[in-house]
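Question (not urgent): is this output format expected?
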Amino acid sequence: MQPRASTWEYREVRFPRGTTREAARVLLTGAAETEHWELDQLRLYPDGRRIVRLRRRVYRMQRTA
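Got this back:
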């Protein structure tokens, strides 16, 4: 049996300037707990914008019979 390469699904979330760290944390925590997303990349720009890339593993079901 060969090990399969991981397959990931990505989602980008943008926060406008003025969004507090607490508000961003609450939204990202909710996505992690309910939809199984994890943090892949965070970009914080000098003007205060945040762009967050989330990822989650895609599981493919194999037929057994």
